[in-house]
Amino acid sequence: MPKAVIWACERIMRNFLWTGDPASKKLITKAWHKLCCPKDEGGLGLTRLENINRALLLKLVWRITSHKDHWASFLKAKFQSRIGNWISYYKQSSIWGGLKWAIQGMEKNFGWIVGDGNDISLLHDAWCSTEPIADLISNNGSSFDHLARVSDIIFNGQWSIPSTIADNFRLANINISTIPPPLLGEDIRVWKLRCCATDKRLQGRGINIASRCSLCLKNIEDDTHLFWICPFAANIWTWIHELFGFQWTPYVQNFETVTAHATTRSAAIHDLWAAAISNVLTEIWHHRNSCVFNNIPASSRRVKSKILANFFECSILMKMILHNRVEDLMIFKNLQINPRPAKPTRVLQCFWSLPDLDQLKIGCDGCSRGNLGPSGAGVILRDHTGNTIGAMSAGLRICTNFVAELLNIIFGLEWASDRGW
């Protein structure tokens, strides 16, 4: 929204507030920006249109950068260069000024989860570190192709990094072995970690405030204390661990160690535990904001009730099957949600028989690591005595399990036919 329109709308609102007539003026009794303050600060609790406009601009930039709709693609083509950077020169547009302001505040906090790598710039996006590679090396990536994508260094679902690019990774102090493997789906734009506006982080941005945790009212407030060490947060974590039958160890916990608790459990428990971690972190932050901005006293009971309510919504969307074990059933009972029935195990007998005289039997199998994922196929031929006549294996690149099985049958028949078997 243009500033002139905002000023005109606020003038109408101000006139109506003081005179009851949008067209009539009156001597200002109190400054408009003071009226837009919260009621407990002497204002009327009104929201300035300028702040609403800024919030909408930030949301618009996020949708442009993370969506693939036609309108988003059009705006990116209009305001981005060929390498994917936002333009820095003037362009006649009624919306570019506002978008430029929002981009400057958001771009440094963007990150990526690598799928197939087609949407991620190898040089100019933050996908393997907190900053783009171009900002981390002194030569500004001159040995790179500025149009290169991350997909250029992915082969068969694994990293395949040429030596010239690997040298630049070392110059940027990026350990290639620590980069997670690509997920082989769509690339996902995400908001970086450690962006919550805690007191400690606000102090680091130059805001002069006294830091005190609003939940325990004792220590300074930073990420580690607020989400992990604070007695209030530790109480929530201990409670949620007890519901799942896991062990909570104070002062040595972080996101990685907490997520590892469910690695050996069923898929349903694994999904529930991931939802539990997300719910706890989210509700701690929301409750902290209520304490800071609404002067609501900290209440662990209120947080726990919200977390249990969230579990009910998660259970409706859950698709995974649990193991038919007492431990899994107890977790569902503790969370007050209905478990999905486990599929009964069926034992089927299979018999392999030798082929008839003067015949060959083709044994073939195809599979993928993940569905979709890197796939392969193997074929073996045996005669009527069980002796191996020939064998063959091949890579199938990226496909599903079903497609891998079909391709393997076709390859086996073609291979046997070419050799006259």
From TrEMBL:
GO terms for molecular function: nucleic acid binding; RNA-directed DNA polymerase activity; RNA-DNA hybrid ribonuclease activity. Residues 356-421 form the RNase H type-1 domain. Pfam families: RVT_3, zf-RVT. Keywords: Nucleotidyltransferase, RNA-directed DNA polymerase, Transferase. The keyword Nucleotidyltransferase applies. The keyword Transferase applies. This is Reverse transcriptase zinc-binding domain. It comes from Macleaya cordata. The lineage of its organism: Eukaryota, Viridiplantae, Streptophyta, Embryophyta, Tracheophyta.
